[in-house]
Design a protein that fits this description.
The complex is a heterodimer of chains A (about 325) and B (about 850). Chain A is built from ten helices and ten strands. The two termini of chain A are about 40 Å apart. Chain A folds into two domains: about 250 residues, Alpha-Beta Plaits (2-Layer Sandwich), CATH 3.30.70; about 30 residues. Chain A is of the alpha+beta class. Chain B is α/β, with parallel strands linked by helices and about 850 residues long. Among the domains of chain B are: about 35 residues, no CATH class; about 160 residues, Dimethylsulfoxide Reductase, domain 2; about 120 residues, Rossmann fold (3-Layer(aba) Sandwich); about 150 residues, Barwin-like endoglucanases (Beta Barrel), CATH 2.40.40. In chain B, about 25% of the residues lie in helices and about 10% in strands. In chain B, strand 17 and strand 18 form a beta hairpin. In chain B, helix 3 crosses helix 8 and helix 3 runs parallel beside helix 10. Chain B starts with 8 loop residues before the first helix and ends in an 11-residue tail after the last helix. The chains are: A alpha+beta (about 325), B alpha/beta (about 850). Chains A and B meet through helix 3, helix 4 and strand 3 of A and helix 1, helix 2, helix 22, helix 23 and strand 22 of B.
Amino acid sequence: MTDDTGNLLFGPQPDVAGAAGYRGAPPRMGFFTDTSVCIGCKACEVACKEWNAIPEDGLELTGMSYDNTQGLGASTWRHVAFIEQRKPLGGQEPGVGHEDVDVFAAAGQLGTSPSSPDPGTTVAEVGSAPAGAPAGAISPVAPDGRTELRWLMSSDVCKHCTHAACLDVCPTGSLFRTEFGTVVVQEDICNGCGYCVPACPYGVIDQRPDDGRAWKCTLCYDRLGVGMEPACAKACPTDSIQFGPLDELRDRAAVGVARLHAAGVTDARLYGEDPGDGVGGDGAFFLLLDEPEVYGLPPDPVVTTRDMPDMWRHAVAAAASLAGLAALSFVRRPR
Amino acid sequence: MAECHPVGFQWVMEAKARGAKVIHVDPRFTRTSALADLHVPLRAGSDIAFLGGIVNYVLSNDKYFRDYVVAYTNGPVVLREDFRDTEDLDGVFSGLDPDTRTYDNSSWQYAGTEVQTASGQRDQDYDERTGGGSSVTEAARGEAHGAGGAKAGGEPERDETLTHPRCVLQVLRRHYARYTPELVERICGVPQDLFREVCELLTENSGRERTTAFAYAVGWTQHTVGVQYIRTAAVLQSLLGNIGRPGGGILALRGHASIQGSTDIPTLFNLLPGYIPMPHAHQQQDLDGFVRADAGRKGYWGNMRSYLVSLLKAYWGDAATAENDFCFDYLPRLTGSHSTYETVMSQLEGTCKGYFLLGENPAVGSANAKLQRLGMANLDWLVVRDFSLIESATWWQDGPEIETGELRTEDIGTEVFFLPAAAHTEKGGTFTNTQRLLQWHHQAVEPPGEARSDLWFTYHLGRIIRQKLAASTDPMDRPLLDLAWGYPTKGRHAEPDAAAVLAEINGHDAEGNPLASYEQLSDDGSTACGCWIYCGVYADGVNQAARRKPGEQQNWVANEWGWAWPANRRILYNRASADPDGKPWSERKALVWWDAERGEWTGHDIADFKKDKAPDHRPRNGATGPEALSGTDAFIMQADGKAWLYVPSGLTDGPLPTHYEPQDSPFPNLLYGQQRNPVRHLPPPHPDNRYQPSAGEPGTEVFPYVATTYRLTEHHTAGGMSRWQPYLAELQPEFFCEVSPELAAERGLDHTGWATIVSARGVIEARVLVTDRVPPLTVHGRALHQVGLPYHWGPNGYSTGDAANELIHMSLDPNTHIQETKAFAVDIRPGRRPRGPAAVELVRAYRTRAGIDDRTGTEL
């Protein structure tokens, strides 16, 4: 095996399209999602569904702030996370919070409540706290009523990994690497085997329950082909979602992070931008204002096929030794 | 703004990237707060106290822009001796008649002269101006909107030292002297240090070198003192020199595409196109009498006759002649207020028998949704044009009153017509945005099925009615039969050509050539113009609104993108961006300036001023209209050419903004004995429109929480455009209320559980979101919890829920007749609401417990 093939599975790979066999490919294209300017409007979610004709996938009030989408899936290719935190946003004026009141504790009682009786049930008498009210658990109002609050919003998407395990494990060739370096699944070829689903280190790709086929963000391959930017980036009003050549986006992102650090937002960091990371860097990377876990992102994703060469080596070695043993057994067969 | 106008918010983000500070004042922490530098939560309904406190800070620390105030505002003008302020009369101004609940505003005028307002109530001085007391209008409730001018020979007395005790600035100083940071804290719940921070940020960012903009939406307008909220901002911005200058202004964020357009070319009962007032029913009133009473004597409203005659020519074409007063008598006459809420009351009385709803869903979106439905149930016919079967089209078969048994389908006589409407992509036309910018949108596809544009509907309705009446000899039908109704149509649906309508609005001369400017309009019938302020939008026969020259190919004002009224000026009153001598206040904020060599105004924008009027120009004695404006009268529409810190004419409820408590408030007015706006507009008593006790009266404690309604990014108004869209419905799938953890604890509300919310009008249920984003406040020294209610939901559609407007009363701003949806009082309790008659019973029980009768809350 050559170094080239090794790089198909792990480590830095500066020429993704070239390694996939394209000659004279355009520069690798991707997304830079700058969550520091995301206003949580969800225009990306709607534009994505409109353009790609993705079905509506459930009307459920989750109680997770304004996030009723919940996560990426077969019918959700852009997902805006909303995280309410008792922390001042960098650059915001600090004030006095009321740290001893925990909205997340209240959220923790989700589903355990007796307060959703049937229609017509008499509600509790006014002024009397109903049984089970967490009156003792939550402290009184802070004297000045001020909250030090920040509301993180972040639009998640398929990372279009440099080393895409979904693609590596796909037995039909439904998943393929495009000339733009992106990873696309073709719904007319997918046979619904589902190997790709556990292969994704981010939990992005998924099967639709009705037909079993796998679906995910195509980075609007059909739009890219005619020189248009992806629908989500087009719809984003604040340029939180930026589309372009990955090299340019990385330069821009570095400037952005430096600016935020200078402004005192020391928590700002890039996620998925490092070609040395476990997936060889993402084609869609992020500027986050907190730890990745806060946004529901894995802190240190690793391409699940990283160890495939080793595994094959082990398998070959095992096969060889088995064959050797077998041969030996013939050799040693007593006459 | 990020929450409700996310696309417009991109420009705030651009400004932020260049160093702008963003302050967000809102009871809840929204997506705007998340991106703001400072979030200031305050009690809903207390904004005048908050803004008045800033005015006090500006005046008592001498932070106002003195040169600007002296030159361009009415700050130096001396008021009449008989004017009494709220400080003198414990919360009311001089001129209040407690029996009619109206003000006689004569004592509010400038000393020694009389000025007419450029907007608002322009018929107030009809009798004095015409010398005849022949009005049949309800007394002193003028609804006209007109023009300005000082009485001949009466220039107002001025004191440019700003020290005369009766000059506006000193009156202002006294009026707000008690609006201290301590008081702001007690009334609004805004801590003093936070309040001072706002004051400092605002004043540091105003003056010669810097400007600050205010942006507001219906959180300001929907109050019994809504107009005065915005007036307080106008006072502040005028004091700080933030009007007519780049980066300044007060921006009304509109709630709907082209709401600006629908006031310019109005859907309002009291306005004609271009803010010409609708005439009132005065006896023997002719065109000249109307103009004499309502036009300004100085400034551009002095030319009102030209604007009106040109409009009448556009309406009635050749039928409008000098001999018949250009068909002035064809115009309807006002006999009082005919706002949407009075229309509902007259439906209930049985005098209003037919109703058109074009893209409007009052059964969900208007205050006191129940009364809206009961009114519709008393009609002969109802026409609903919308995208889907909204609640206003189906209340007769599945509305809440059917469930409670208050209405029975078989008893309802209303004939309901539902007509599907075309979306904006299915028709051509203009949108006018809040900056008065007209942008043309092209039709992309034909409307599906039987869906048609509103233009198609209106044109063909008129065409068919005219056909049916063609043989009529009844003079009542002449206004319809004489209309110039010859619009070209195109396509298989015979769609009227929207560009031809725009061309008619632009206007033409006697030869049919398109006009280029309202300065060309004449009062002799030789020009026709459908809306004088839009004159020029079709200059040279070119659709100027369709221009799309990219920003990078022109200067930063970009006035080759679309077209802005008036005359494509992008910043109104921009003469004020230069000092009295015509030089920019600062290089940094230069916009237009006087070029002495060429003898004209020049600059980045088109000057909102007569191009060749020099800064040192002084009008000759006896000049009227635009001629009477001096070279420093920057506010050219105003009757005195000045920005009004103090409003001598045009408002029904006072010359200076004053803090009053909302109609339903748990708190007393800490500033005055007068609790509420004394002249707020209360419709006649109705059993389903009861008000609640306030201010510690017995029963106040029954509704202890302040509630406010608002929108979410994911939905639009009453939901007709969003609740039926699966992609939007799944993003906010259910009606919810937002409460603090503290309120949840106090009332035993569970996150994602159900809550029942009750007012004296109705009961609704909502899922509960417990969140820090609706913080408790300390008001009047005690903890106040607020309940946040998005108002998008109703029982129909893909995503359903109760309508927040079931809770809200009809109690209106007396100037605009807008409802008070943004601050009211409720009770909240855990669990789902009762169904059927039990729901009505619960509300009744609450009313009984609070001791509510038909007089509650109707005190002066």
